[in-house]
């Protein structure tokens, strides 16, 4: 479903300094597989997800999603790919202010011209499963940090994407909520054959994945995906 080949992304930070965020990273994820990308802050996790989301161009390498190279899409194709094929829960909690939680979660469905009633029906059940069923009509600014994140998870899953990217998904959730959200994500991936890439610095979150890769110096430390030490 997702094939990343020899991805390289360096950032010039002025002068002769170069940050080697990604330095020849390769990774494949099959449909129905939840893979964690584990590494401390600054190891290139967000850079990788942004490249897979076609928001950032790599210097070298390829990213294929369902066989198609998404690093070669036009801006219009990339927007369409993100809307229809991808569910990206980014680190920024960018909800539309003044808009209800349920409308925020249904945003991509509205983009697809799905009617309000049907869109609400689809996202309401997801939001219920994510434990924010009581918050449907609350406006974005009335939600806690963790609730906002779950609205974004509902938004990402609403279109039934084949690939889900999640950046520090559980960073702002307490342990019990983290478990709930990760359990839901694992179930969705396995049942609906969705491939998921979960970037995290939290070993507990990584523990939910089918495979965990450790990122260091822009490459996977363990191409064979050894389990994390306790
Ligand atoms: N636009 C950018 N310009 C310069 N350096 C960047 C940029 N984006 C990321 N970096 C650098 O690349 C490295 C990896 O960053 P990032 O992908 O955000 O790591 P992580 O998500 O694992 O914390 C860091 O050293 C970061 O400072
Ligand atoms: Mg990051």
Short description:
This protein has 230 residues and is α/β, with parallel strands linked by helices. It has helices at 45-52, 75-84, 101-105, 107-111, 116-129, 145-157, 175-192, 203-206, and strands at 2-12, 18-29, 34-38, 60-65, 68-69, 86-89, 163-167, 195-200, 211-216, 219-220. The longest helix is centred in the C-terminal third of the chain and has 18 residues, at 175-192.
**What is the name of the CATH superfamily of the largest domain?**
P-loop containing nucleotide triphosphate hydrolases
- The count of domains is 2
How many helices in DSSP terms? Answer: 8
Biggest sheet details: 6 strands, mixed
How far is the N terminus from the C terminus? 30 Å
Helix content: 25-40%
Which assembly state applies to the chains in this document? single chain
Tell me, what is the CATH class of the largest domain? Alpha Beta
Mean pLDDT level = 88
**Global outline:** globular
- The neighbouring-strand order within the major sheet is 6-7-8-3-9-10
Content of β-strand: 25-35%
Radius of gyration: 17 Å
Q: Which residue ranges are poorly predicted, with pLDDT under 50 across at least 5 consecutive positions?
A: none
Number of strands: 10
Word description of this protein:
- With 230 residues, the chain is an alpha/beta fold.
- The chain has 2 domains: 1-85 and 162-222, P-loop containing nucleotide triphosphate hydrolases (Rossmann fold, 3-Layer(aba) Sandwich), CATH 3.40.50.300; 92-160.
- 33% of the residues lie in helices and 26% in strands.
- The chain has helices spanning 45-52, 75-84, 101-105, 107-111, 116-129, 145-157, 175-192, 203-206; strands at residues 2-12, 18-29, 34-38, 60-65, 68-69, 86-89, 163-167, 195-200, 211-216, 219-220.
- A hairpin with a 2-residue loop joins strand 4 and strand 5.
- The longest helix has 18 residues, at 175-192.
- It is globular, with a radius of gyration of 17 Å.
- 41% of the residues are buried.
- The model has no long low-confidence stretch (mean pLDDT 88).
């Amino acid at each position: 479903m997702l094939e990343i080949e020899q991805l390289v992304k360096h950032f010039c930070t002025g002068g002769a300094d170069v940050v080697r965020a990604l330095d020849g990273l390769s990774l494949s994820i099959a449909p129905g597989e939840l893979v964690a990308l584990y590494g401390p802050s600054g190891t290139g996790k967000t850079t990788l997800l942004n490249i897979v989301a076609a928001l950032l161009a790599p210097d070298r390498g390829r990213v294929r999603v369902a066989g198609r190279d998404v690093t070669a899409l036009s801006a219009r194709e990339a927007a369409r790919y993100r809307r229809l094929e991808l569910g990206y829960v980014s680190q920024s909690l960018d909800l539309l202010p003044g808009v209800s939680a349920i409308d925020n979660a249904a945003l991509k469905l509205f983009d697809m011209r799905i009617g309000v009633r049907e869109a609400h029906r689809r996202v309401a059940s997801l939001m219920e499963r994510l434990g924010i069923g009581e918050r449907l009509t609350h406006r974005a600014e009335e939600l806690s940090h963790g609730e906002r994140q779950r609205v974004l998870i509902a938004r990402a899953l609403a279109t039934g994407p084949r690939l889900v990217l999640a950046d520090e998904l559980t960073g702002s959730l307490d342990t019990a909520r983290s478990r709930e959200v990760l359990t839901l994500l694992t179930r969705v991936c396995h049942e609906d054959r969705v491939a998921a890439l979960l970037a995290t610095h939290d070993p507990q979150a990584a523990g939910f994945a089918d495979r965990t890769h450790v990122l260091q110096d822009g490459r996977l430390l363990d191409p064979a995906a050894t389990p994390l030490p306790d």
